[in-house]
């Protein structure tokens, strides 16, 4: 017998979404990196995290490289764009958290506007831990950045009407639909947003992320199932590119957060944090994510090289 | 290829005697084709028919073995492409690469690093299972001395002998036969000698060829020699191609149902990238998508922590989340005045938290209510970790009789539960603990310190 290489032809295709002016996501009609089956679409992209407040407990070398710029999101953003050349920047309003300074939506909008004017990269706007507050921030920020086509991370079940209406309908930006590691929940939220009138071209999804070792098997399985539903069963409600804020999860788990004094046998702390960030990203990229947000420049470099060597 | 009911019917004695428990031979054949019954149920089948049937009804991917004694591992035997379809059964094993052209110091320090990575995560011991020993010198004695050193240095690792020279291979196998090594290096030129050697010592044989087509042909030749304890790897040197190879070998077995590729695969991550973090990325990819032996240049905790955790995640049974039994657990020499913590019955959470309590050296109690087997926030969001469930556990496990303390420490992530619990347990005070278990040791020391002073 001679070898017959199996080919899997799938019926569906992930929608092509443009972030900002010309950063394209999605467009694939095969499973992640399955170039032997067909068109892998646009290369997965990588964003870098920027905070509106001075970050606590960030890796030492990152803090050293950023220096005083971390006190000013505009300077910080400019520096990252020039030095590390990510595909996008993720501006995260940690300081809007009611327990972390309770920055007002108006102030957030002002910061977002200044950052957007200072850089050429597209922005992804992330909120704080309070979904209620996020509804308010996103409304103001989306207004200040009207029709920029930036993404907002994220609309959840409890605030999707407010976020969808402001971000996706009134101000021409992109809504990220975030659900909790379950295919049906992801589908349901996408449908609700579409019923609200948000155009699929103005949507991305985040079906729930975690760090490797922390319920990560559910994350991978949910991604597998979402991608198979979108591509194999041609389920149009799930054919949206996926974005995941990996760094939001990986830097707080013990593997990254424990100091060398705490666990001497584990060795260099920063190295562990980078490894957790890389492994978590690669795992979800291989299961279907189209974009990831990272914190450490070294992770960015490695994940980019990884993507490039799988897609040439 | 799988046999149809009609194919099987042709192999049966056609006596319609019903001894198999089916009304006719045909009915029995149909059931056999679906895999719902064993061929042995028919006492009248010829030997020849039996072998043909058992081959045809064998699982699409073989389960193979290596190692010896309590370091015996199984690879392969997978039946699905995605873990939600059923479950992945035989986890990949990690290897660290050595070669006989390395300096003594390099070998020594690798051995030390390998031995250093040994820890428990959710009741599973994590360490590198394989030492991949490559003969690059072409010299038998040089190679044997490497094998000896690594064998003596890393008692836990099973050797994987890597050479294409059958002479050297034989000497190497004899050097470490008691540990059940993997013999890696059957190729187009040497396969007959290698198969003989593997047969003689009953070894898992690594087979390699330039690309998928050549590998396929070579496996057929080896099967024709009657050997089926195989581990496959193409000689591709670019990540993109290796991914193609590994995925398509698995799909050929499971989707095309072609057992020529029904064997586990090995990936040499250290040959695809030099840099450590890039090797980590590559290893991550292949834990998820489908390799069974993954070779790295080196190991340390920064690589092991994500990789072993990922492997443990991906290879848990999706139908059966790991749960711990509900109850009141004593950590260390806790007495009736020791602090009481509450968490959920999700195994991952329980083991992380109890590990941190142990690390704190503060003797304590842990109360585990029925939280549906979910993580803290999941259980809370699902309404399974609430004032009611916690109060019920306090009653059920007679906490008030066993302990004098009337304070209960709850996970920081569910600080909102405080009032709810205090409503249900009026004589108790709720203390909100740290958000991450890693902060527990400090928290517990401060907490007990305050009590004493
Ligand atoms: C895996 C997962 C699931 C799995 C469940 C797996 C399981 N057995 O728990 C599945 C897919 C089933 C699931 C389901 C749901 N999930 Co869920 N899930 C997750 C995910 C991705 C990881 C959870 C995990 O394993 N964490 C790891 C464990 C170890 O963490 P942990 O238990 O919290 O323990 C840590 C700390 O709390 C602390 N700690 C623990 N105990 C104690 C005790 C003390 C005393 C102290 C001091 C500290 C401490 O130490 C641990 C380590 O630091 C998270 C998102 C995330 N990134 O965390 C969402 C998440 C928890 N899920 C969420 C939700 C909403 C749900 C659902 C309700 C969705 C729905 N509407 O159906 C369902 C509920 C179940 C149901 N109705 O059937 C939300 C919760 C939102 C919120 N803030 O309330 C989250 C945060 C996702 C999100 N961002 O929306 N989920
Ligand atoms: S026992 Fe064998 S011969 Fe008898 S009916 Fe069943 S299959 Fe036919």
TrEMBL record, chain A:
Lineage top rank: taxon: Bacteria
InterPro entries for this protein: Ac-CoA_synth_d_su_TIM-brl (IPR016041), ACDS_complex_subunit (IPR051069), Dihydropteroate_synth-like_sf (IPR011005)
Gene3D superfamilies found in the cross-reference section: Dihydropteroate synthase-like
Domain CO dehydrogenase/acetyl-CoA synthase delta subunit TIM barrel span(s) in chain numbering: 21-262
Name used for this protein in its record: Acetyl-CoA decarbonylase/synthase delta subunit
Species of origin: Thermosediminibacter litoriperuensis
From TrEMBL, chain B:
PROSITE patterns: 4FE4S
SUPFAM superfamilies linked: Dihydropteroate synthetase-like
Ranges for domain 4Fe-4S: 1-59
One GO MF term: 4 iron, 4 sulfur cluster binding
Chain positions recorded as [4Fe-4S] cluster binding sites: 17, 20, 25, 42
The keyword Mitochondrion is assigned to this record: no
Record keyword 4Fe-4S present: yes
Coiled coil: none
Xref: InterPro entries: 4Fe-4S_dom, Ac-CoA_synth_d_su_TIM-brl, ACDS_complex_subunit, AcylCoA_decarb/synth_gsu, Dihydropteroate_synth-like_sf
Annotated keywords: 4Fe-4S, Cobalt, Iron, Iron-sulfur, Metal-binding
Residues where 5-methoxybenzimidazolylcob(I)amide binds: 343, 349, 373-376, 437
GO biological process terms, semicolon-separated: acetyl-CoA catabolic process
PANTHER family: ACETYL-COA DECARBONYLASE_SYNTHASE COMPLEX SUBUNIT GAMMA (PTHR36214:SF3), PTHR36214
NCBIfam families for the chain: PRK04165.1 (NF003195)
Name this polypeptide is given: CO-methylating acetyl-CoA synthase corrinoid iron-sulfur protein large subunit
Species whose genome carries this gene: Thermosediminibacter litoriperuensis
């Amino acid at each position: 017998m001679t070898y017959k290489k199996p080919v899997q032809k799938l019926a569906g295709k992930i929608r092509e979404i443009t972030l900002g002016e010309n950063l394209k996501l999605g467009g694939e009609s095969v499973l992640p990196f399955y170039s032997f089956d067909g068109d892998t679409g646009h290369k997965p992209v990588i964003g870098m995290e920027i905070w509106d407040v001075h970050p606590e407990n960030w890796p030492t070398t990152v803090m050293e490289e950023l220096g005083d710029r971390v006190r000013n999101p505009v300077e910080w953003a400019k520096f990252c764009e020039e030095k590390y050349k990510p595909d996008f920047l993720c501006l995260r309003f940690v300081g809007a958290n009611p327990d972390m300074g309770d920055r007002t939506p108006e102030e957030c909008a002002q910061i977002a506007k200044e950052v957007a004017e200072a850089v050429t990269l597209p922005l992804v706007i992330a909120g704080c831990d309070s979904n209620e507050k996020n509804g308010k921030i996103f409304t103001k920020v989306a207004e200040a950045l009207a029709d920029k086509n930036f993404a907002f991370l994220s609309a959840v079940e409890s605030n999707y009407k407010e976020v969808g209406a402001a971000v996706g309908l009134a101000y021409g930006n992109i809504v990220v639909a975030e659900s909790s590691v379950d295919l049906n929940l992801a589908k349901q939220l996408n449908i609700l947003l579409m019923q609200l009138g948000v155009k699929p071209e103005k949507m991305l999804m985040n079906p729930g992320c975690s760090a490797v070792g922390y319920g990560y098997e559910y994350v991978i399985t949910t991604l597998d199932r979402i991608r198979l539903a979108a591509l194999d069963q041609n389920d149009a409600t799930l054919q949206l590119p996926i974005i995941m804020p990996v760094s939001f999860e990986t830097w707080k788990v013990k593997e990254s957060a424990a100091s060398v004094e705490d666990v001497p046998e584990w060795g260099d702390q920063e190295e562990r944090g980078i490894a957790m960030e890389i492994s978590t990203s690669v795992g979800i990229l291989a299961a279907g994510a189209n974009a990831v947000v990272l914190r450490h420049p070294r992770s960015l470099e490695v994940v980019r090289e990884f993507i490039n060597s799988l897609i040439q | 290829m799988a046999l149809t009911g009609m194919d099987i019917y042709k192999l049966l004695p056609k006596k319609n005697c019903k001894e198999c428990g089916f009304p006719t031979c045909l009915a029995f054949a149909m059931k056999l084709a679906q895999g719902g019954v064993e061929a042995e149920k028919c006492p009248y089948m010829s030997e020849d028919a039996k072998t043909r049937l058992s081959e045809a009804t064998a699982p699409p991917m073989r389960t193979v073995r290596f190692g010896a004694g309590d370091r015996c591992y199984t690879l392969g035997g997978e039946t699905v492409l995605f873990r939600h379809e059923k479950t992945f059964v035989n986890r990949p094993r990690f290897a660290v690469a050595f070669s006989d052209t390395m300096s003594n110091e390099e070998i020594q320090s690798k051995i030390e690093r390998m031995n250093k990575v040994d820890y428990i995560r959710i009741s599973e011991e994590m360490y590198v299972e394989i030492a991949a020993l490559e003969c690059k010198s072409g010299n038998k004695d040089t190679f044997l001395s490497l094998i000896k050193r690594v064998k003596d240095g890393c008692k836990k690792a099973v050797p994987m002998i890597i050479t294409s020279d059958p002479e050297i291979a034989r000497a190497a196998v004899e050097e470490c036969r008691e540990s059940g090594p993997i013999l890696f290096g059957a190729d187009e030129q040497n396969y007959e000698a290698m198969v003989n050697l593997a047969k003689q010592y009953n070894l898992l044989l690594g087979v390699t060829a330039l690309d998928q087509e050549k590998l396929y042909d070579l496996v057929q030749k080896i099967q024709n020699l009657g050997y089926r304890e195989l581990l496959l790897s193409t000689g591709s040197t670019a990540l993109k191609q290796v991914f193609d190879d590994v995925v398509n070998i698995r799909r050929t077995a499971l989707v095309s149902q072609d057992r020529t590729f029904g064997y586990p695969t090995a990936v040499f991550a250290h040959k695809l990238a030099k840099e450590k973090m890039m090797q980590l990325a590559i290893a991550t990819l292949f834990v998820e998508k489908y390799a069974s032996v993954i070779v790295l240049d080196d190991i340390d905790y920064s690589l092991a922590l994500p990789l072993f955790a990922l492997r443990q995640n991906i290879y848990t049974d999706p139908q059966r989340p790991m749960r711990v039994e509900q109850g009141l657990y004593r950590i260390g020499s806790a007495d009736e005045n020791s602090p009481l913590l509450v968490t959920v019955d999700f195994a991952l959470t329980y083991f992380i938290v109890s590990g941190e309590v142990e690390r704190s050296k503060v003797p304590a109690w842990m109360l585990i209510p029925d939280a549906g087997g979910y993580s803290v926030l999941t259980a809370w969001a699902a309404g399974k970790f609430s004032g009611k469930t916690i109060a019920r556990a306090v009653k059920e496990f007679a906490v008030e009789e066993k302990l004098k303390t009337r304070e209960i420490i709850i996970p920081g992530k569910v600080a909102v539960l405080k009032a709810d619990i205090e409503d249900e347990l009026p004589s108790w005070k709720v203390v909100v603990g740290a958000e991450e278990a890693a902060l527990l040791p400090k928290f517990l020391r401060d907490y007990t310190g305050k009590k004493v002073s």
